Amino acid sequence: MSDQAILVTGAAGFIGFHAARQLLAEGRDVVGLDSLNDYYDPALKRSRLDLLRADRRFSFVHANLADRPAMNALFEKHRFATVVHLAAQAGVRYSIDHPHAYADANLEGFLNVLEGCRHNQCRHLVYASSSSVYGANAKLPFSVEDRADHPISLYAATKKANELMAHSYSHLYRLPTTGLRFFTIYGPWGRPDMAIFLFARAIMQGEPIKLFNHGKMRRDFTYIDDVTRVMLRLIDRVPETASGAAPARVYNVGNHKPEELMQVVALLEQELGREAIREMLPMQPGDVPATYADVADLMRDVGFRPDTPIADGIRNFVAWYRLHYN
Asked: Per-residue pLDDT tens for 10-32?
């Protein structure tokens, strides 16, 4: 590993894997950290990890974010100039029944990352937030200028807490931080608990797909390759300071085009060549009827916004799904 190795936490996860792979493709050294927990099938995480390990510039660390001694040792060893923090306990519905998992990974774990950056001269921390921070906001599209102080799930509350914690470290210790509010990321190597993956698997197995709010949901589906392109542009764009302001920024990362869930199901049926069995259900606790990202500041600052059409993204996902699951 060179002195300029980038730390990617959650490297065996969906977004972390793609981020690490793109960094490696650009010739950068990457240290990937992951706990390989069983929130979803660890075999999928290990398959992603096998692809990363094929590159000699990649080094893997099996550790838990909440393990303070392990995190301290990792940062002291490498003194990362850049950290891309993507590890977290994900899932809105899971947080209702497993709250402590979110406190451990998303609060204590994030604090350990902040402390590692603070004490080891990190030049830039880029971290994952979520569109869920907008909670019950009714104004669309969601703008980073909107208030986001009424989360409706514990997961959302921990992500908003991450933004506040990052801002305090930026203010107190001049640690440059950039938070990314992700909007429904999907694509090849995706998470099995996300809608498109769940729907594809159910359709292929002839099982019902659960459509909450009776299918009247809209999501700003954002293709994974667009996400990694945005991240790579932002990694080297260290937030500037002016008049003593904290060197902290937050961006929406979304497709700026919400899609109706029923249209997504129709596209999956078309690509898979099978009809879905629809099970209409009421709204679930913690869910919102629509998400929609205002990405004007992203376009202004990095000259790019996610824009992959949903039909193209689903086609790519299904091609991967068929190949990976034979």
From this structure: 999 999 999 999 999 999 999 99
Q: Are 146 and 155 in contact (CB under 8 A)?
A: no
In single-letter form, the type of residue at position 133 comes to V
Provide the H-helix boundaries in 86-153: 92-97, 99-102, 109-119
- Out of 40, 155, 186, 321, the active site residue is 155
Which residue do the tokens 């992603």 mark? 48
3-state class (DSSP) for residue 171:
helix
Q: Which amino acid appears at position 92 of this protein?
A: V
Clarify whether 173 is annotated catalytic: no
Query: Residue for token digits 């086609």?
Result: 315
- Structure tokens, 164: 């506040």
> What residue has token string 């406190």?
103
**pLDDT tens, position by position, 238-277:** 998 766 789 999 999 999 999 999 999 999 999 999 999 9
Chain position carrying tokens 């990937």? 32
